[in-house]
User: What shape does this take?
Amino acid sequence: MNEKDIFDDGKTFLTSTLQRMILVLKASSGSLFLFNQRDNELVLSAYYNAKGFVLTDIKKQIGEGVAGSVLKIRRAILVHDIDKDPRFNSNGFEHYHGKSFISIPLFCNDELIGLINITDKVSGEPFTEEDLAFADNELKHQLHRLADQRAIIEENQCLRDKIAKASRGKFQNITGKHPRMLKIYSLIEAVASTRATVLINGESGTGKRLAAHAIHNCNPEERKKPFVEVSCGALTETLLDSELFGHVKGAFTGAFRDRSGRFEMADKGTIFLDEIDSFTLPMQVKLLRVLQDGEFERVGDGKTIKVDIRIIAATNQNLQKLIEQGKFRKDLYYRLNIINIELPPLRERVSDIPLLVHDLIIKHAKQLGKDVRSVSAETLERLKRYPWPGNIRELENVIERAVILSQGPVLELHDMPDHFHNVEPSIHVDAELFPDVPDDKLRSVARDSEYRHILDALNVAEGSRSKAAERLGIDRTTLYKKMVNHGMIKVKRSRTAKASMFPAEA
Ligand SMILES: Nc1ncnc2c1ncn2[C@@H]1O[C@H](COP(=O)(O)OP(=O)(O)O)[C@@H](O)[C@H]1O
Ligand SMILES: [Mg+2]
Assistant: This one.
């Protein structure tokens, strides 16, 4: 973030602070001076009086009038009657015709950034010591917030720059540097140079569609060819049939003319079949034939069409389970599953959340034309602890909504949906990792925050106690004791207490 941005940021922020102080103190006017270090001068950046709010660019040299004294003594001053105060140099303050005055220097992290003046109560009475104390405290509080915001903004910018250098490149729109994502990037690059069939697995909202696009776009040769996308789950069998394979005139009621299908459109290129699990068994047979021989017929036609197509399929279902249930053909599964890309759910790559959040803020702030740049530390912490059942799609919705609601450059907790502040987020519990924890115990977890945090950490660490302890910021022994306390580990009677929940760590 450059200096100018920080200046503008502070200006908007302090201007609203000034307005609020004028209202609370029932003052007739107020002004905000910001310090320009280069020219060693104060610039009148905002002036507010009974007539309204005016922005000007009046400049004052440091040392003049009340401002000069305030800056010299570095603390707030109260003037009961300007005319009788020897410190007051009317030349510098001809814009104010007031008598009573509060003047407060603004320091942000010990650095002088400006000065606020509040002039005359509307009632005509002078300001009191209480008014001064209120204004001074209020400003100190606001300046702390400003310092925090600046720190966050700068830190985030720094983080973004680093990442832009490190983990971007080929996949501009896929964010993430979790080891599992890095593996996926290599896999995408590797398959992009082939025409092999790819099966993408992952819960809804994990980026399957994004990955499919990346595979196609990654290879400059492939990118020139067609890429056709079909959301198979949205169509009935009949519609999907004619959508994929096309039909001839009269093939069914409503088929008024010949129509080519998506497979023909995708010839020489790639077809992305999303929600492949929704294929009925007869449709699976037809797809298998395209995969094996590149052949099919339009609906209602006897003429065989030959195509050369790369197929990328995606599903959020466990196809092996569907095979067991007789809903998915095993031979088709093997044909599809040549290269498998498994996208992790967001809760298993919590370390990517800050990055995703920031990229999504930038994306939506740009789209909405809003000056939002980052998120408060507290809010980010909540976002990291939430289990994200809807994965990145849900995260994106939350961020978009927050950017819309936000009134400043930093997203705050109150910009998040209610369940982020009212309810402690429930956590995902991978039952396979906790065979010894009974179900009712898992349920009661909802009331026990520590227990939940431990489970959460163990989940993310895939059962590794040292990693979970690190995540929780405690040492392994403490974690072990806590787990015993919570009944998560059965302590054997022998002297060497051993956990029964997790296999011994290497
Ligand atoms: N790694 C990622 N980085 C940035 N945005 C992502 C990422 N993965 C998913 N998204 C965004 O989340 C939303 C859902 O992604 P999508 O690819 O449609 O998921 P899926 O097909 O698995 O349901 C989209 O808006 C997408 O841009
Ligand atoms: Mg999808």
